[in-house]
Specification:
CATH superfamily of the domain at 69-213: Tetracycline Repressor, domain 2
Number of helices: 10
Pfam family, one: TetR_N
Oligomer: single chain
Order of helices and strands: HHHHHHHHHH
Organism: Streptomyces cellulosae
Protein name: TetR/AcrR family transcriptional regulator
Radius of gyration: 20 Å
Keywords: Coiled coil, DNA-binding, Transcription, Transcription regulation
CATH topology of the domain at 69-213: Tetracycline Repressor, domain 2
CATH class of the domain at 69-213: Mainly Alpha
InterPro entries: Homeodomain-like_sf, HTH-type_TetR-like_transc_reg, HTH_TetR, Tet_transcr_reg_TetR-rel_C_sf, TetR_SbtR-like_C
Shape: elongated
CATH architecture of the domain at 69-213: Orthogonal Bundle
């Protein structure tokens, strides 16, 4: 007697309109978190996204889940921009420069501080997005140093601290009105990263682990 082969059932894929709604919610949340801070009412986010309240809660059961998704999506897009820049030009310093400016446009420095102690810092999605971002930035910096383009006395932590300080004030405190200064100041910083170094930096190069322990 032959044993019947079990039928393989496919996992249903989300409908295109459901994916679009989710993307609209994340985009609206990113804009409003930046403009008003993380406590903006979810109902207001739903209105800006053009969806019903139930759609927001169907995709994100609570505020923590939505904030985490926004931050992860911003880190992912920033990583993709750096990877694409490196693939297109092969110039590690140019790719690093693009990463810095794209990060400012994505408002990453205004959004990342939202992941305060109330959030699960070890959530797999967050860890994966953070690890990907750190890896591509470290790779860009290592390549630029090897090519003699980037001064050797700076680390990933130095880059991240300077970007956070120069690119945006905290979310909800005139982030948008500061836009006209951001890229000008960031370019001044990027030019200071070029080799050969014009001065000796005090202290040691900062790593991401240094920042986590600070």
């Amino acid at each position: 007697m032959q044993t019947a082969t079990p039928v393989q059932r496919k996992v249903p894929r989300p409908r295109a309109d459901a994916l679009r709604n989710r993307e609209r919610i994340v985009t609206a949340a990113r804009e409003m978190f930046t403009e008003f801070g993380p406590d903006v009412p979810l109902d207001d986010i739903a209105r800006r996204a053009g969806v019903g309240n139930a759609t927001v809660y169907r995709n994100f059961p609570d505020r923590d889940a939505l904030v985490r998704e926004v931050v992860c999506s911003v880190m992912d897009r920033t990583s993709e921009a750096a990877e694409q820049a490196l693939a297109e030009s092969g110039d590690a310093f140019a790719a690093l420069e693009r990463f810095v400016h794209v990060s400012a446009d994505e408002r990453i420095s205004a959004l990342c501080p939202m992941l305060a102690t109330a959030f699960d810092q070890n959530h797999p999605d967050l860890e994966a997005a953070r690890e990907r971002l750190e890896q591509i930035v470290e790779e860009l910096m290592d390549r630029a140093k090897a090519a003699g383009q980037l001064r050797t006395d700076v680390g990933v932590g130095d880059l991240m601290v300077a970007m956070a300080q120069l690119s945006r004030p905290p979310a909800g405190t005139a982030c948008v009105s500061a836009d006209r200064f951001v890229h000008r100041h960031l370019q001044l910083f990027v030019d200071g990263l070029r080799a050969p170094a014009r001065s000796v930096l005090p202290g040691a190069a900062a790593t991401m682990e240094d920042l986590r322990q600070a």
